[in-house]
User: Fold this.
Amino acid sequence: MTDTTAPLEHLAAKAAMEAGANPHGEEGERYTAVNSEKNRPLYASRVKVYPKLVHGTFRRLKWLVMAVTLAIYYVTPWLRWDRGPNLPDQAVLLDFPSRRFYFFFLEIWPQEFYYITGLLILAALGLFLVTSVAGRVWCGYTCPQTVWTDLFIHVERFFEGDRAKRIRLDKSPWSMGKLARKTGKHFTWILIALATGGAWVFYFADAPTLAGQLATFDAPAAAYLFIGLFAATTYLLGGIAREQVCIYMCPWPRIQGAMFDEESLLVSYKDDRGEKRGPHKKGTSWEGRGDCIDCGQCVAACPMGIDIRDGMQLECIQCALCIDACNEIMDKVERPRGLIGYDTFRNQERRRAGETPKLDILRPRTILYSAVLVFVAGIMLFALSNRSTLDVSVLADRNPLFVQLSDGSVRNGYQVKIVNKEHSERIYRVSIEGLDKAILTRPALAGEETGTVTVGADKLENLRFFVTLPGDGVKALNGGEADFDFVVTDLENGTTATRQTTFRGPGQ
Amino acid sequence: MSEKHTDDVTGVETTGHSWDGIRELNNPLPKWWIYTFYVSIAWAVAYWIVMPAWPYLTGDGWTYTKGVIGYEQREVVTDELAAIVESRSGAMERIASLPLEEIANDPALMEVALGAGKAAFGDNCAPCHGSGAQGSKGFPNLNDDDWIWGGTLDDIHTTLAHGIRWDGDDDTRFNIMMAYGSDGILNRDEISDVAEYVLSLSGRAGDQEAAARGSEVFASQCIACHGDDGSGNQELGAPNLTDAIWLYGGDKEAIVKTVSNGRSGVMPAWNERLDEGTINSLTLFVYSLGGGEK
Assistant:
């Protein structure tokens, strides 16, 4: 802030400070608000980052990952999976209106949402494991924020040129050429954003049908709303906000500290080899100096706008582009590659101490993460492979607990819910076991008084059953109640579900 | 603090705040963050204007700013309820007009009827018959298979519509269990004997001699309504005395009391208060509780 624009308070405070006054005041003297007089910024403007294009192993790897992840995102809703008649043939479909999640061979009902929870737990554990082994691999390569930002930067580069050109373009006054470049860039961004939002909605409805509806403008309003919403966030986060998302919005960088340890492979500048840095003239000796020629290429390449040579920083998403940037330079100056590379804290220490660097991947931390990962995956596999297509629950009436009948027998009522997860209508035999002399009936109005019930495909049927125990059976009840089982059997494939419940009588 | 203080480890300037030597780093927030904050304030103000928001006191009591679009949650609920009634109106009309058997054979209609019946039962019947229709002394249990006035759909419907011993309805179900004791028709011993006999009807052997004497009293006084064998008569509303269910208690003391003082419980005629659709729904609901007779 220059003096000409500084408010009077600042000028006064400055004068006071120059005179040696303590803004906190001496003990027992005057007090001054500490934030009032200093030109300390509480809020910082974003400084635009102009990442430079690099070439090399990691850049190629990132292109590949980008292609694969984007392909998965855009193509998945269009994959077909035959489930038989009257069922969606979309391989991955989150069908909210009929409350089903279809995932290839899996079909998840709302009450089975714990599978999704298990999946999220697996994803979290996977993230922990990968991070403790090789740092922020998720952030650097596969996070949608990184992938889309990378794509948007590439579009920017296509229209406005590489780093130096872009900086020059932004500094130059507005012209037809600048306008055309900027318009082209934003137009392409918006197209990508719309395609992103557009692909999103296909996960929630039959993709070809919805695509047709979208083309003829008679898709549901929610579809347009979500396309708009996701287009807006994609454009904003990938095009405009970029590294701000990682630095300020995402909680992950803060969690990193607990995930890394001194044996984690992190994208690092090997200062033991690089220092002392400084410009190097071709043909002169490398004796007595480090390999870093301070060319700044690692900084120019960084999409987060940091200097990797400052060490571990929360801004660093470990995209490894600085490795490529530095390796290009090392090749030119004919020094070995890998001045910036995947390295561990311990190895830096080991090299300084003259020891041989080594990798220690099998550490208690990684072993524990792997063990828990395998354990949870095992539970998931077990649960999924034993997932029954028949679900039964039995609820005994509580009001009244039992009904005394005229011939001295006692009747209990039960709500029996039968969930048929098969894709065809099924006939179930309902019987009871473990209660001598008891008779199972259905209410007279329910029509079928026999022990079989029909449940439609993909349906839940809430049925009422009566169990009547004759007078002598009631007298024989121990403590006025007895446990017994409802047994529901699918007559077609023999699947059986057994649920225990209680018969209650008047007691002693 | 005339000079800037910089944290040694991070190299970041501190705010000057210090707590027990711990200083707060001044890592400036991005500006867009504060702008987002301002936008949310603007949003809040706009929301106050558009939607109902602030309470204030007037001469007539508390009220609130209504908002320019006139949104009212109570209105939303009213509309939703009206829509539900509307969606059911066709079904309720059919339930009111169709024969009960026909409704019972239509699962979709039956679902509406049972739902409406359950709700109406809770509103109108539960005070006497209990929330589970389990009844209590003097108020029959509607779950069981014992029916004083009959348990077919038509019987239940008649009882519901016209009530029992209900003054205002000419078609009400009516009978009198006489007060044999207080009206001086039978003496104490005769009443005790007939009570023993009634106990013996349900196989609960008491004093056999008294029961034998009581059978003569029973034959002269009771069989007209309760039948030769005491099994009752639904036409007359005479309870079955041979079964295990006793509306006013089945021990000797209770039976003596019933014979001595008579019983005349009352049930309102519900056609005065409820429409035909609701009465039909209640009929089907009560029938479905488990005791319905063919």
Summary: The first strand of chain B starts at residue 14 and ends at 19. Chain B touches chain A through 40 residues (CB under 8 Å). Chain B has a mean pLDDT of 91. The CA atoms of residues 193 and 213 of chain B lie 6 Å apart.
